[in-house]
Amino acid sequence: xxxxxLALHVAGQWLSQASGGERGVLNPADATTLGRLPLAGxxxxxxxxxxxxxxxxxWRRKTAHQRYGILRTAxxxxxxxxxxxxxxxxxxxxxxxxxARREVLLSADILDxxxxxxxxxYGRTVAPRVEGILSQTVVRQPVGPVAAFTPxxxxxxxxxxxxxxxxxxxxxxIIKPDExxxxxxxxxxxxxxxxxxxxxxxxxxxxxxxxxxxxxxAHPAVAKVSITGSVAVGKLLGEQAxxxxxxxxxxxxGHAPVIVCDDADMAxxxxxxxxxxxxxxxxxxxxxxxxxxxxxxxxxFATQFSQAASRLRLGPGLDPQTQMGPLTHAARxxxxxxxxxxxxxxxxxxxxxxxxxxxxxxxxxxxxxxxAPPHCLVMQQEPFGPLAVIQAVDSLDxxxxxxxxxxxxxxxxxxxxxxxxxxxLGEELQAGMVGINHYGVSQPEMPFGGWKESGLGQEMGAEGxxxxxxxxxxTVGVPG
Length: 480
Ligand code: NAD
Fold this sequence. Notes:
Layout: E1 8-10, E2 13-15, E3 22-27, E4 32-38, H1 42-61, H2 64-80, H3 82-93, H4 97-118, E5 124-125, E6 133-142, E7 146-149, H5 157-169, E8 173-176, H6 182-195, E9 202-204, H7 209-218, E10 224-228, H8 231-243, E11 247-251, E12 256-260, H9 266-278, E13 288-294, H10 295-310, H11 330-345, E14 349-352, E15 367-370, E16 387-393, H12 396-403, E17 408-409, E18 411-415, H13 419-428, E19 433-436, E20 451-452, E21 455-456, H14 461-466, E22 469-477
Parallel strand pairs: 7-8, 7-10, 8-9, 10-11, 12-13, 12-18, 13-16, 15-16, 18-19
Antiparallel strand pairs: 1-2, 3-4, 5-6, 6-22, 11-21, 14-15, 17-20
Helix pairs in contact: 1-7, 2-4, 2-5, 2-6, 3-4, 3-6, 4-5, 9-10
The protein binds nicotinamide-adenine-dinucleotide.
The site of nicotinamide-adenine-dinucleotide has 28 residues, from helix 7, strand 10 and helix 8.
């Protein structure tokens, strides 16, 4: 087993002990302890923020081309060590190793893309309106030290999105990965340092989350707050950031609808939807959740989808035969059960699954419900697990209204062979990412972000790096 000894990275030092105590990190496949994680107290949090201020001055002095070279080196280290990173990721998070490996390689591509975009932080020159002005330019500058918070569902990809864009822009970072999955981020930080990022420019802390975020957001050195997480925590951190007028971006939860039109190729919809729904045991922010089908085709689709779901092989992510791993921590299993029980007590029908799997680890059966009333919890709250709901509708208008009815707006999907309908859905679905006839909306080159309560700002794409910059107008007049 290759689970590393855990440490925090504060002020250029690796700390295997810290003043906030420690906690265990568990393997979700069998609930055994993988390692002990030191927890930052006030002293380490202040030291990390102070260090980020020093690291910022060092890092921003490098040219964009130097930063690019260092980040590309780190991306190549990730590729060289993809097997080790994937193994560690699976051990602490649970997903099948093949999925973990894909996550690592895609993350290396995100790092490459943002490194490239760091060279393209163009400004502009504006013609003066009065005489005696030599130049008027608008430039983008790095915003400063960033406090970044990430969850446990993609322990490599989500930290990389923030580290890549912040560092490419010239910012320093204090990253707080989730305490359930710290080792993946720790290995990433090691690779960034090995590639040449100044040790004080990348700090990694874990701790009691509410204390860590309150301390870092209030710290005068921190200029920007970036969170990926739940809507509730995103709002809380947004309020704290606003109190200090700190820049803020948030990638939050979703409740993705899927509109399957009458003309769709059902075999294709079934195959692609099954893979998208149960990937990472449904613990994906843009995971498809609510499937809307024409009434005449709904029962047939529901039967085939639930039968295929019930045949998925569950097991530890390290077993190559496994198609769906465990949920990442015990509370997820309780949440799933609560949503299923509530739906059933409100009249929904259970087509498959609906229970935790007995035995060690945090497994929950792939679950398909149908005809859940709109007021039940699963139709209002993000399940963030292996749960799909299939609903019958009588028209495309009804499907679009239902799809747009929730305060979430992250991913939305539709299947149709009609060009006009495809364009209409692309236009009318209220979401940051709309996938028509496929689910691949998360790509290094494309901006990823939520509408409505699902977030503020975007990550990846040409936009990702921009959120770590401030605009400045510089005008130079004739000297006398
Ligand atoms: P969470 O909101 O509980 O935690 C996210 C991060 O914030 C963690 O590191 C957590 O420790 C930290 N945090 C900081 N201050 C906190 C506080 N006061 N209280 C609690 N946590 C605090 O999210 P989660 O449950 O770990 O992750 C799942 C959520 O993340 C889902 O809603 C999912 O949709 C969302 N998510 C969104 C995206 C996206 O790109 N939009 C991607 C992945 C996950």
